[in-house]
């Protein structure tokens, strides 16, 4: 079978993004409490997996955040063969500062760790840089360069347009991500979606 996995920190807009992509077909939105289990939805012959949000959650102990990360890693390891595509959702405008804050403590941010991990296990991974509606036109390319650099993708970001998709789930501006998903599915001879 064919699986696409969506991962990201809490509050990056992953639920909004899934709603924009799949509408009511995927059960998303705020789940009550903090769910550790991935949510699945079948869209034609494609399995969509929404992993629980990792990183800071208000009212949640650090230990629980580690559990979310460990469960995510295990799920990906166990299913790496059938996961054909990963989409890592980030909060575009907030991303550089988040990475720098972790760097200053000599720690690798979970986002960056997850990106490296997905690629290490051989999963082609797209970065959905969300909330780009918050960014002024003059700051758009410089921000995306900063994001690319922090992911180990040497700027200019335009060299990585097959990996980085700037979007705004809130404004429904999903062109870049839909384009990349369409390309990947086309390569896998699946032209029916997006
Ligand atoms: P999740 O926790 O990652 O599933 O995030 P949600 O989809 O619940 O969104 C978290 C918050 O970010 C909500 O207040 C959304 O309205 C907001 N949000 C989501 N996408 C965007 C976006 O593209 N732009 C802006 N400005 N806010 C967004």
Query: Do you know the CATH topology?
Result: Rossmann fold
Q: Give the biggest sheet.
A: 6 strands, mixed
Number of E strands: 6
Order of helices and strands: EHEEHEHHEHEH
Main sheet: strand order: 2-3-1-4-5-6
Strand content: 15-25%
The helix/strand class is alpha/beta
Helix content: 25-40%
Uncertain runs with pLDDT below 50, 5 residues or more?
none
Distinct small molecules: guanosine-5'-diphosphate
Average of per-residue pLDDT values: 89
Oligomer status: single chain
> Distance between the terminal alpha carbons, to the nearest Å?
19 Å
Task: Please identify which CATH superfamily we are dealing with.
Answer: P-loop containing nucleotide triphosphate hydrolases
Rg over C-alpha atoms, rounded to the nearest angstrom: 16 Å
> Judging by the overall fold, what is the CATH architecture?
3-Layer(aba) Sandwich
**Contiguous helical run count:** 6
Shape: globular
CATH C-level class is Alpha Beta
**How many discrete structural domains?**
1
Task: Present the secondary structure layout.
Blueprint: E1 2-8, H1 14-22, E2 39-43, E3 46-50, H2 62-79, E4 83-91, H3 95-103, H4 110-120, E5 125-130, H5 137-150, E6 164-166, H6 175-187
Parallel strand pairs: 1-3, 1-4, 4-5, 5-6
Antiparallel strand pairs: 2-3
The structure holds guanosine-5'-diphosphate.
The site of guanosine-5'-diphosphate has 16 residues, from α1.
């Amino acid at each position: 079978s064919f699986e696409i996995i969506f991962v990201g920190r809490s509050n990056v807009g992953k639920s909004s993004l899934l709603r924009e992509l799949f509408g009511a077909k995927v059960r998303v939105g705020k789940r009550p409490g903090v769910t550790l289990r991935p949510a699945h939805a079948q869209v034609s012959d494609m399995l969509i997996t929404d992993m629980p949000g990792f990183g800071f959650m208000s009212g949640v102990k650090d230990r629980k955040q580690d559990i979310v990360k460990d469960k995510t890693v295990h799920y990906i390891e166990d299913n790496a063969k059938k996961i054909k595509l990963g989409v890592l959702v980030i909060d575009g405008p907030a991303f550089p500062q988040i990475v720098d804050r972790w760097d200053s403590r000599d720690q690798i941010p979970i986002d960056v760790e997850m990106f490296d991990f997905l690629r290490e296990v051989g999963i082609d991974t797209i970065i959905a840089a969300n909330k780009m509606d918050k960014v002024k036109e003059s700051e758009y390319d410089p921000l995306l360069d900063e994001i690319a650099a922090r992911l180990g993708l040497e700027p200019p970001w335009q060299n990585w347009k097959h990996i980085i998709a700037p979007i705004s789930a809130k404004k429904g501006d999903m062109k870049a991500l839909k384009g990349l998903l369409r390309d990947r599915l086309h390569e896998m001879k699946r032209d029916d979606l997006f």
